[in-house]
Design a protein that fits this description.
CATH topology of the largest domain in chain B: Cytochrome Bc1 Complex, Chain A, domain 1
Structural class of chain A: mainly alpha
Largest interface: A-B, 20 and 19 residues
Distance between the termini of chain B: 48 Å
Number of helices of chain A: 5
Strand content of chain B: 15-25%
Radius of gyration of chain A: 13 Å
Helix content of chain B: 40-55%
Strand order of the largest sheet of chain B: 1-5-2-4-3
Structural class of chain B: alpha+beta
CATH superfamily of chain A: tRNA modification GTPase MnmE domain 2
Number of domains of chain A: 1
CATH superfamily of the largest domain in chain B: Metalloenzyme, LuxS/M16 peptidase-like
Number of domains of chain B: 2
Largest sheet of chain B: 5 strands, mixed
Oligomer: heterodimer
Order of helices and strands of chain A: HHHHH
Distance between the termini of chain A: 11 Å
CATH class of the largest domain in chain B: Alpha Beta
Number of strands of chain A: 0
CATH class of chain A: Mainly Alpha
Number of helices of chain B: 16
Number of strands of chain B: 10
Order of helices and strands of chain B: EEHHEEHHHHHEHEEHHEEHHHHHEH
Largest sheet of chain A: none
Radius of gyration of chain B: 22 Å
Strand content of chain A: under 5%
């Protein structure tokens, strides 16, 4: 598919997962805000390859909703891992 | 009665296998078969305490036990061959002459309630119970064999006596004996000692489960370190000719450390620590399920990876080498199971009671060998096209991502 770069999509999702995991694990010196996590997920949603593989966009949407609803970081991470896995299965 | 002489063995095993089990119980009597099985070990007129029952068998180094299943209840003993008559005597005694004392009923009720609660604290087991509730919703097959806390609390001694009288009768019984024994002498001993009532009382016909038209997800929130997941679909009964293809499908998919689930999901992707598949078969239904024990963060990812493995089995034939390995695995397990007198006696009695005929091991192996890769793919396509059911235990406050994973 022209313009499609699954590596880039996976990379952005991994970046979002790393952010969420650092909240879940309470690691790092800087406090990461839900806004930053939501921004990282929106970055993923901008890529075209999230539409090329079934369910990736929907998992990312679920993750964004979970952040908005104040769900635990582990739950957000789970949904992002699902998006990453779906991308892996579809590529 | 089924008897298998195994003259080279040192032991003999005897089993009394009764048709029935939890499937025949209505909601009010849920758990009564299991309750009776416990009570039968509390004492008889001849052996008034549980200790005397245990001593009789353990005093000669033997083992005695029982199990309640959904479609049968079995009492068995394994003893040194020269004590086989003792084994038969004790088993006949407990199923025909148990006291079923009121005080024992109350004591055992507490034990069973604790047993039910214990299972709920074991998420790896409990998630399978929840899965069976989804596979057979509102049906006795979907209920815990031990009943519910409510039904066990309410069961009265009269209910128990009535149920035992109706079901512990000769027409419902298959007796099995295997080991170093004399067939004629064993038959004679059984005829002399067995005193169950010969006439049937009531029907053993069980209602079929209702149809299942859509996928479902059941999430039970628990603050566990691991997520426990069971997913699967209804499959075939133990009477279905496709049961051999289903068993090979199950072996390829998730039995053992060389199965696809283990190699791909645990070893290659590193997602789950424990992942395996299993089947359950009944007279008119069955299921194929997958268990996943996984870090909660990877739970949905693991489900997606399992779903991809299931899809793969519907789209491509299993290769000749993989199928041959699965056949050898199945045949080898059967042969190992039949190494012991206990294994043989259960195998024979089970076939006689539930299938109404007995295949030899050679016949069984020929049926396994006859399965082709196309058969496995056809059965996979049929079974996995049915609505997927999934139960989850873990720290999850919503189920939407799980629903998305199985299209529910």
């Amino acid at each position: 598919m022209p313009g499609r770069d699954p590596q880039r999509g996976a990379e952005r999702i991994r970046k979002a997962i790393a952010l969420v995991n650092s909240v879940a694990d309470e690691a790092g010196d800087e406090e990461i805000t839900p806004t930053e996590i939501a921004e990282a997920i929106r970055d993923c949603l901008e890529l075209s390859d999230v539409d090329a593989v079934p369910n990736v966009r929907r998992y990312l949407g679920e993750a964004l909703d979970a952040v908005s609803d104040g769900m635990p970081a582990d739950f957000v991470a789970m949904t992002l891992y699902a998006a990453l896995g779906a991308l892996r299965e579809g590529t | 009665m089924v008897v298998e002489a195994m003259p080279e063995r040192q032991s003999a095993s005897v089993v009394l296998m009764f048709a029935g089990g939890s499937r025949l119980e209505d909601d009010r009597l849920a758990g009564v078969s299991h309750f009776i099985e416990h009570l039968f070990f509390k004492g008889t007129k001849k052996r008034p305490t549980s200790k005397e029952i245990a001593d009789a068998i353990e005093g000669v180094g033997g083992f005695i036990n029982a199990s309640t299943d959904k479609e049968l209840t079995a009492y068995w003993a394994r003893v040194p061959a020269e004590h086989m008559n003792l084994g038969l005597d004790v088993l006949f005694d407990i199923v025909a002459n148990s006291k079923l004392d009121a005080a024992d009923v109350e004591r055992e009720r507490m034990v069973i309630l604790e047993e039910l609660r214990m299972y709920q604290d074991q998420p790896q087991d409990y998630v399978q119970n929840l899965f069976e509730e989804l596979i057979w919703p509102g049906h006795a097959l979907g209920r815990d064999i031990a009943g519910t806390e409510d039904s066990v609390s309410r069961l009265g001694r009269d209910d128990i006596l009535e149920y035992a009288d109706a079901h512990y009768r000769l027409p419902n019984l298959v007796i099995g004996a295997a080991g170093s024994l004399d067939e004629a002498a064993t038959m004679s001993e059984v005829t002399r000692k067995l005193s169950l009532r010969p006439e049937a009382n009531g029907s053993l016909e069980a209602a079929p489960p209702p149809s299942l038209d859509s996928p479902h997800v059941l999430v039970r929130r628990r603050e566990t370190e691991q997520a426990h997941i069971c997913l699967g679909t209804r499959a075939v009964s133990y009477l279905d000719p496709d049961r051999y293809a289903l068993d090979l499908l199950n072996t390829v998919l998730g039995e053992g450390m060389s199965s696809r689930l283990f190699l791909n999901i645990r070893e290659r992707l590193g997602i789950a620590y424990d992942v395996h598949s299993f089947t359950q078969k009944h007279r008119d239904t069955g299921y194929l399920g997958v268990y996943i024990g996984v870090d909660p963060k990877k739970a949905v990812d693991a489900v997606n990876a399992v779903m991809a493995e299931l899809r793969g089995l519907t789209e491509n034939e299993v290769g000749a080498a993989e199928l041959a390995r699965a056949k050898e695995f199945t045949k080898g397990r059967l042969r190992l199971e039949l190494e012991t007198t206990n294994g043989v006696v259960f195998w024979l009695a089970y076939q006689e009671l539930l299938l109404g005929e007995i295949n030899t091991i050679e016949e069984e192996i020929a049926l396994v060998d006859a399965v082709t890769g196309a058969d496995v793919m056809r059965v996979a396509a049929e079974v996995f096209s049915r609505p997927m059911q999934m139960s989850v235990i873990g720290p999850f406050s919503r189920d939407s991502a799980f629903r998305l994973a199985i299209g529910a």
